[in-house]
Specification:
- With 376 residues, the chain is of the alpha+beta class.
- The protein has nine helices and eleven strands.
- An eight-stranded mixed sheet has the order 2-3-1-5-4-9-10-11. Strands 6-7-8 form a three-stranded antiparallel sheet.
- A hairpin with a 5-residue loop joins strand 10 and strand 11.
- The radius of gyration is 28 Å and the shape is flat.
Length: 376
Amino acid sequence: MISDLEYSYSPVREKVRDLREYLDAPRLRRELATIEEKTADPAIWADPARSQPLMRERKRLENLLADDAALARRSDDIEAYFELAKEGEDTEADLAREIPALVEFAEHLESKTMLSGESDPLNAIVVVHPGAGGTESQDWAEMLMRMYIRWGERQNFKVEINEVQDGDEAGIKSATFTISGEYAFGLLSGETGVHRLVRISPFDSAKRRHTSFASVFVSPEIDDTIVIDIKAEDLRIDTYRSGGKGGQHVNTTDSAVRITHIPTGLVAGCQNERSQHKNKEKAMKLLRSRLYEYELDKKKAISRKLEDSKLDIKFGSQIRSYVLQPYRMAKDLRTRVEVGDVDRVLDGDLEPFIRGYLKMRREGNMPAEVNEDDLT
């Protein structure tokens, strides 16, 4: 039996090695040391716009280092159990317990490594709406809400209910809640769409099979803080002679200043002051203001794009099917990931679907639409 366990552990050993190489703990420590140097400056704490992003980055690096240490510790423990087994110790029960736990941890960590989008690290705002069908769909919407809340609890995330409108007889007409935690939005980003349930209706006295629909929309909790970091190497500063009406007010020096922010192409200039230094100072203030508006527009564009991506509760936008009758299975219609223990899924175990979606997104194999054959 030990030999079987060692054989099954071989791919896990390779996955742990690959993950640790990807995390690259020495690199993470160097980046963390740089952050620590910056936060050692007392002046930075007077500016939340500078300190808050640094604190978030420090926490991210510390968490990744903790994950790497946990991988090393768990894999070392398993290797030690195998060594003890070779010496005649009975470690079979320990290995049967620790190997699946390491597999689950490694798969969750693998999902995190596939999150590189700008909004992925943010908290997630989840909105659930039932489709047509009255009580049936409203009950299904409540089941979905519970599924995501349980998922958040499994991740040790904070879940806050923002608004719930109860159904007329059972279930909910709508629900909005926030799941706060590292990469909450990135992990849940693939859940947006229509979810389909097939079951024997508990509300049908004839015990007939019903199909219900509900939509889920996940958006990032956009941080209002916008940090404007203007690097000297990104600026082109031109000076020129400012114009005037003549007489004693004619400017005979190149005191006017025009500053171009090369990455964005934004330009700000000032020629009202006689001093080139003052004109430059005012031009920088104007440029900072325009960059703020530019970044604000980008955030608004993200929100608009997410709003536009909301799907109608209809056939073509279905992403997942949960069948309780006549067989039991949860199937993602995009990734083809299937899980036979549908009760476990409804209890918040979404890891296979999340990992499948992130892999598909990384590989660029996003399906254009769902075919009717996929529903069977």
